[in-house]
Design a protein that fits this description.
By secondary structure, the protein is an alpha+beta fold. It is about 45% helix and about 15% strand. The protein contains 14 helices and ten strands. The strands form four sheets. A three-stranded antiparallel beta sheet has the order 1-2-3. The chain has a three-stranded mixed beta sheet with strand order 6-7-8. Helix 6 runs antiparallel to helix 7. The longest helix is centred in the middle third of the chain and has 18 residues.
């Protein structure tokens, strides 16, 4: 029997099986509860005597089974997810850029956010495995020329909470943040920019070349995403509200700063069409990004 996942949420998983749509509450999805399917016309019910909920749950695409909450088992589960992203990308994405992942530990099934909340509460260190998953996500998106956008109630996109876990614990994940932000649909996903990227820069400060590049990218993303900050009825330069210009005046000479800006601007403009930034298309970001030249001195 084969199943295709349609939807998952904090309370249930739903997919096709036996030519019917089956919805299983998460609390029962790994249990011995018998399966009863209600047909579309709701005239009859069909019970599968030998089929239990736990038999169906294993067919859900993106199901990541963990032996336990022990660190090696969690790391192994995440590495398996990374491998699936590289080899079974479209089976994990019922819609382009919409990732379906469900974690199972014992009889408990949970979505990404609930899983990350448990990782944090249990203080489990799986930084290397989390990095592998984020890297695999970026590689799969590039290989298949797919972008993504925010889907969660908090605006987070697929693997956004895993990236938050990583960015809060790993001082050397600027490249993972960069790739994630470049490949998203910035018109419809701001969580990675406003929460993750900003939080990472605030936590570490601008004391390394890679962090300066990331800070410049952060400022450029506002224009690229088509965002504009307005104060007293007037637009505020992205370089000002992002805090990059003030820091650059005291830390970098004009030529050095210009080189970093040009490098990041070139990178953004060179993105293939599927990941191109709408703000750069209409010229707003190009105009706005040049304002630092008159304000730097």
């Amino acid at each position: 029997m084969r199943g295709a996942c349609h939807q998952t949420s904090g309370t249930y998983i739903q997919f096709d099986a036996y030519s019917e749509v089956i919805r299983i509450p998460r609390d029962f999805a790994a249990s011995d509860a018998p399966m009863i399917v209600l047909t579309d016309d709701i005239i009859e019910t069909r019970r599968f005597p030998v089929l239990k909920a736990k038999d169906i749950a294993g067919l859900v695409p993106g199901l990541v089974r963990l032996r336990s909450w022990k660190q090696p088992d969690v790391a192994a589960g995440l590495e398996l997810l990374a491998a699936k992203l590289r080899s079974e990308f479209f089976s994990l994405c019922p819609k382009p850029g919409v990732l379906s992942v469900t974690f199972q530990v014992g009889a408990s099934l949970m979505g990404e956010k609930a899983f990350i909340d448990e990782l944090v509460e249990k203080e489990i260190d799986v930084i290397d495995a989390a990095t592998s998953v984020i890297d695999a996500w970026g590689e799969a998106l590039r290989q298949n020329e797919v972008t993504f956008h925010g889907t969660g109630d908090d605006g987070a996109a697929p693997l956004g909470h895993l990236l938050a876990y990583l960015a809060g614990r790993n001082d050397d994940c600027s490249e993972q943040l960069r790739v994630y932000c470049l490949l998203r649909n910035g018109e419809h996903e701001r969580f990675s920019r406003d929460v993750l990227l900003k939080g990472y820069l605030d936590r570490l400060g601008l004391n390394r070349p890679d962090l300066w590049r990331l800070a410049v990218l952060y400022a450029l993303l506002f224009g690229g995403d088509g965002s504009m900050i307005v104060q007293d009825g007037e637009p505020v330069s992205d370089w000002v509200h992002a805090g990059v210009l003030q820091s650059a005046r005291t830390e970098l000479d004009p030529g050095e700063f210009a080189g970093v800006v040009q490098e990041e601007l070139t990178l953004l403009i060179s993105q293939p069409d599927v990941w191109s930034s709408p703000g750069f298309v209409d010229g707003y970001a190009l105009d706005n990004s040049s304002r630092w030249r008159a304000s730097f001195s």
